[in-house]
Amino acid sequence: MNKWLPPYLLNGPALVIFTVMLVVPMVMTLILSFNSFDFYGGIQADDYGWHNYLEVVKDSYFHEIFARTYGIAVAVTLICALIGAPEAYILNRMSKTWRSVCLLAILGPLLISVIVRTLGWALLIGNNGVINEMLLGIGLIETPLKMMFTTGGIVVALVHVLVPFMVLSVWTTLQKLDPQVESAALSLGASHFVTLRRVVLPQVMPGVLAGSLIVFALTASAFATPAILGGRRLKVVATTAYDEYLNTLNWPLGAAIAVILLIANVVVVMSYNRYVERKYAAVFD
Amino acid sequence: MSFLTLQNISKRYGQFTAVEDFNLSVEKGEFVSFLGPSGCGKTTTLQMIAGFEEPTMGTIHIDGNDMTHVSPNARDIGIVFQSYALFPHMTVAENVAFGLEMRRINKPERHQRVMETLELVRLADFADRFPKALSGGQRQRVALARAIVIKPQLLLLDEPLSALDAKIRESMQIELRHIQNTVGVTTILVTHDQAEAMAMSDRIAVMNMGRMARLGEPFEIYENPGDSFTSNFLGSTNLFQGKVSSVNGNEVSVDCSGTEVRVQGTSETGAAVSVAIRPEKIGLVEPGLGFFDAQVRTRIFLGTSWAYQMDSDLGAFNVSLQNTGHRAAGEGEAVGISWQADAVGLLAEG
């Protein structure tokens, strides 16, 4: 038997699944995005062109949606870094028992279905939600604060879900940190704060950047949380594509939006990754 | 008062006592080693001097100031860590400059002192490299440069050479001692390697189970170890157990399994003692002419010396003979054992 055959045969099942589940739908979506659409006639089978893309690129309605999506992604990434990195540092210095308890609390959101978790946030931040009722009750505010259907609400809920990825990513780099390095900085006269800023932080930066990548990519393509907390009017790219498919029934336009989102995400993630690798290649193994 | 004084230092972790009633005075410019097996408390003692651990009891004075509860970043101590603990994201020059930056020394002076120190450790050409691109010995020298560039009152070396291989270790010992002499900084070295301690130190503090077992100059404590732990830890020693049969002034006769061995020292008749003799101090003579006869069990040639294992009525023991260019007694041969009268020591049992 040919010695190259067995590896291919062994990879066969996975290859078939990937082809059927990923490659075929992707290619079909790509083809669909070039089809034209007519409100009365539906998808025009043999009429291909760039008009769906041109519509997205020209229409300020879509500009706003893309701007909002990436604005949310940047905000969520920054907040996750600001919360997640210190959280990981504290976690790393905890005793074993407390660390497991806190780790469970941090990873908790990942164990709950995204829908249930988001509805939980809706209960909290809705106009008749727990927070507003409480603030009204103690007389701090007179009319309910608008938190539901705002970008702020979406950002808070997404940070809640995605911060574990940042914590885990930073924690991994922290574990590679030589504990004597901090002692060395102290012995050279650095304060605890300077040690953190000049010695610990630069060394965990690769972890923060890797975590940012995950959080950014997941936020930019997030669907369920923006769909529930943003409602029908406060749209992000993923929910817009969904609406084009299922409400307007304009599949080609929805496909074009989805393809643009995919390309934009790939470009951002890859250039960011290349930047990080180039920056740290000389320093870390 | 001495430059560095440790008074009645003890450290306990719950029920466990890491260091017990440790006293030491170190003069300015002196090089003192803490020598002992792992877990003897030597590193804990160093950590207390550095300020990373607080003593449960006792005080630490540096240059007359009570430093017992001063935080590590205010102690002005240079430390070379076992793992070197270099800052991986900084170049060699930046690593060395860090301590000077913390002391707010201006840039031109900083640069000058960094280059001078790198010159001293022969790494001036590597100033712009990252630690990742250096060999173990080079990293070690960067760590040393970083510790001495701040002109610390005290230099602490925590097993600084243990990660290096044997050849580099030996040359680093000489270099380290040379640099310490040049800079003149008071230095404490922690090591489990007796050869390293003897090669580098003015004085050695031998530690065992959290206590100081012996303190003195290397030659002095090698020759007069005082107890069997020290004598075994510093080099190797043959111990012959026996009973004192008679005491005659300064000379003690010990009955070791029927053979009488005369030792200088004081003891009482009937006391259980050990007679200690180092392998290199035993001489071989014709059978019957020595104190007793033995048989060569194994003989190993080591280049500069021959290592023998002997069997005798007193038990097995080791002999080390310098290689003088002649063939020495072979395996299975019977030989006579002799030594200089002052080569044997008397150790109390127990």
Can you walk through the features of this model?
The complex is a heterodimer of chains A (285) and B (350). By secondary structure, chain A is mainly alpha-helical. Chain A has a single domain (65-280), classed as MetI-like fold. Helices cover 76% and strands 4% of the residues of chain A. Chain A is built from 12 helices and 2 strands. Chain A has helices at 5-32, 51-58, 60-93, 96-111, 114-125, 130-137, 151-176, 179-187, 192-220, 224-230, 237-246, 251-280; strands spanning 35-38, 42-48. In chain A, strands 1-2 form a two-stranded antiparallel ribbon. In chain A, a hairpin with a 3-residue loop joins strand 1 (35-38) and strand 2 (42-48). In chain A, helix 3 packs across helix 9 (192-220). The longest helix of chain A has 34 residues, at 60-93. Chain B is of the alpha+beta class and 350 residues long. Chain B has 2 domains: 4-232, 3-Layer(aba) Sandwich (Rossmann fold), CATH 3.40.50.300; 238-348, OB fold (Dihydrolipoamide Acetyltransferase, E2P). Helix content of chain B is 24%, strand content 37%. Chain B has helices at residues 42-50, 92-102, 107-120, 136-148, 166-183, 194-200, 218-223, 228-233, and strands spanning 4-13, 16-26, 31-35, 57-62, 65-66, 77-80, 154-158, 186-191, 203-208, 211-216, 238-248, 251-256, 259-264, 272-277, 282-285, 292-301, 305-312, 317-322, 334-339, 345-348. Chain B has a 6-stranded mixed sheet, sandwiched between helices. A 5-stranded antiparallel sheet of chain B has the order 13-12-11-14-20. Chain B is globular and about 75 Å long. The model of chain B has no long low-confidence stretch (mean pLDDT 90). Chain A binds chain B through residues 178, 180-181, 183-191, 194, 198-199, 202-203, 282-285, and chain B through 50-52, 71-79, 81-83, 85-89, 98-99, 102-103, 130, 132, 146-147, 150.
CATH architecture of the largest domain in chain B: 3-Layer(aba) Sandwich
SSE arrangement of chain B, N to C: EEEHEEEHHHEHEHEEHHEEEEEEEEEE
Largest sheet of chain B: 6 strands, mixed
Overall pLDDT of chain B, averaged?
90
Number of strands of chain A: 2
Number of domains of chain B: 2
**What's the helix-strand series of chain A?**
HEEHHHHHHHHHHH
CATH superfamily of chain A: MetI-like
Beta strand % of chain A? under 5%
Provide the structure class of chain A.
mainly alpha
Quick one: biggest sheet of chain A?
A: 2 strands, antiparallel
Q: How many whole angstroms does the radius of gyration of chain A measure?
A: 24 Å
CATH topology descriptor of chain A: MetI-like fold
Distance from N terminus to C terminus of chain A (CA atoms, Å) equals: 41 Å
How confident is the prediction overall: mean pLDDT of chain A? 90
